[in-house]
Amino acid sequence: MGDDESLAFLAKEDDSGKAFAFLAVVVMLGLVFHAYTFFIVKESDIVNKYTVQEFTVSFEETSLQGSDSMLIADGETDTFQLSRDLIEADASLMMAKITLSVSYEETSGQVADPCDEVQAQIPPNGMVADWQHPDNVLADANDDCETMTLVVHVYPGYTGEVMQEEGEYAAHWEAMWTNASHGSGVLELQVSVDANQAPGSFLPGSNDDSEEVNVQWTVDLFEVSVEATSMT
Amino acid sequence: MAVDGLLAVGGILSLTLGISGLILARNQKLEVIWNKRFAAQLLCWVFISKGVANSLRSVGYDTELWRVVLYAGHFSDQIFGGLIMLLALIFPVPILRTRKQFKIGVGAILVYSIVSLGAAVFMGINTPLASFVGLYLVPGFIWTLVYIKFRFMSGHEDNEEIQGVADVAILMLILMIGHILFRWVGMFTGSNYFYFMDLYGGNFLNDYMWSQGLASAVVFGLVIVCGEIIQATKGRVRTTSYVIFTYMSIGVLSHIVYGGVELVGSGGGTLTGTELEGLSTWQQIWTEITATLHFTMMRPILGLYIFFRYGLIRISEDNEQVGKTMAIVLIVVATSALLEIVQSLIPLTEMLSAGILGVAIAFGIGWEERSFQSLISNPLRFPIRTKGTYFPELDFDKQEYRRLDRALTVMIPFSVFVAFLLHWSQVNPF
């Protein structure tokens, strides 16, 4: 078979095979790089791309507490405000729940003066929270000086319990529990007082015309931790 | 059963081009050198097999006949792979340089196709033997070698015939692997959107074989783009340079679009547009307007250009009307495919989309009147006078050309029949 009929004619003609050798070397280098990436760098990702990853989603809980007091005049309403900025919560912590305890005593000093009537309510706006949560307590009122406890669940779906999740990626589950928009804004507690007068209140200088109301707040915070547990 | 509109349109485009191309090739009166004559037939069958595969897959797998869709699509792709390999062995520069070599080459490709088809039937569709071993590597290597030889042929830098061979080598490569060039950056950044591309998954070696083919395609694309940059620095920029620059630039943009994507399962898919899980809506749209557009529209348009520009099919007065009809049909169907993409981006009312379609077709046919004549009137010749040793003259009679058509006319329906047999037998493909 003459040179003209050789299968290697294209490879050898004109440049004695230099172009062929160059291309073969470049292709080999490319394929070695690809094999290294495929078998070493990306192996576990590629092997596991069809397996469903399981994740344990757990939460580390912490809480911040504080208190404030307001002197509210008879027939008036005062507002107590609470927000992430005001309580100086760390940005990595998500708000789970806010508990507000409203307490007061009869402070007029008059004999047989009954407790004033105090109403407390949280309007369902201002803060992004789970306002439809069935365990929320958004309003209360009493006239027996008992402490009232109001509760707002902030992060939807949060129970604090460890969860097992399947599929997706760790970042997906982390993102699910690190949405800082929940708890943003300002929560308002409106407290109003209707003073009940003592039987001898007709005497000069003995009017019960205001009440000091104490608000104790507790904000439950959490930080998520996602751990890959096994493959299924 | 939802039909993937783009794949369906792509299937129709490919089938139209393939069938009408075959009619034109068979009836042409003008003399065409043997390797171009066979290349025309092979390219037509490439489009017919891809047309069958795309049309079947457009139905999707959510049907009772999913095995038929799966197997017949796979078999058509295997025939496509064999044809592409044979095409690279004879066009634009014949590696098979004698009648004997040609016959052995055809036989070897036939054995390759039968073995891979048999492996898919008896060993599972995702076995490495059935996974198009060397589909991109072998033809890509040959066409890139032809490109380097002819583009950098000393003393012939301005020879249109010699540079035309390099051009057609680039176009053949883009026709085959253009969609992979849209993801070339991912190979070097170790991105999931590149390394997660697979055929069916579930077989690590199979995944590697497929991914290796994609990697080789990226290497060929880079070699050519580097070559064109060198040529550009010397002031020799050709139309094909812009084509490869565009494809590679889209590859860079794709890396930005897919950046940070965490695909689930086979989110990389095979880029046919049917497996896009794990991608956001915007990323899916991007895949549609790049990879799927290449599959459905660019391949037939490139095919049409190669047929006429490089004289694989010669148009004379006898067959001019068929040629024109073929171009018009392609324009109309391609326009509707384009509209399909626009509709996936911007929801249009039926009235508006019909209006746009009408205007687009009017422009398209107007373009056809002006461009078709210039495309067919002066086909580029290969440098037989100056570099004739690259192009051995072999004689084949009409019967031998027709035998190839007859073989493939039997092979494709037979593969579909086998797919039905496997469906009726309730075979587990994996």
Secondary structure topology:
The complex is a heterodimer of chains A (232) and B (430).
Chain A: H1 9-12, H2 18-41, H3 43-47, E1 53-73, E2 77-83, H4 84-87, E3 94-104, E4 117-121, E5 139-142, E6 148-153, E7 163-166, H5 170-176, E8 186-194, E9 210-231
Antiparallel strand pairs in A: 1-7, 1-9, 2-8, 3-6, 3-9, 4-5, 4-8
Chain B: H1 5-27, H2 34-58, H3 66-90, H4 99-122, H5 137-151, H6 160-181, H7 184-189, H8 192-195, H9 204-233, H10 239-258, H11 281-309, H12 320-345, H13 350-377, H14 384-387, H15 398-424
Structure description:
The complex is a heterodimer of chains A (232) and B (430). With 232 residues, chain A is α+β, with helices and mostly antiparallel strands. Chain A contains five helices and nine strands. Chain A has helices at residues 9-12, 18-41, 43-47, 84-87, 170-176, and strands spanning 53-73, 77-83, 94-104, 117-121, 139-142, 148-153, 163-166, 186-194, 210-231. Chain A is rod-shaped, with a radius of gyration of 35 Å. The model of chain A has no long low-confidence stretch (mean pLDDT 86). Chain B has helices spanning 5-27, 34-58, 66-90, 99-122, 137-151, 160-181, 184-189, 192-195, 204-233, 239-258, 281-309, 320-345, 350-377, 384-387, 398-424. In chain B, helix 2 (34-58) packs antiparallel against helix 11, helix 5 (137-151) runs antiparallel to helix 6 and helix 5 (137-151) runs parallel beside helix 9. The longest helix of chain B is centred in the middle third of the chain and has 30 residues, at 204-233. The two termini of chain B are 23 Å apart. Mean pLDDT of chain B is 85; it is low at 264-276. The chains are: A alpha+beta (232), B mainly alpha (430). The interface between A and B is large, with 36 and 44 residues.
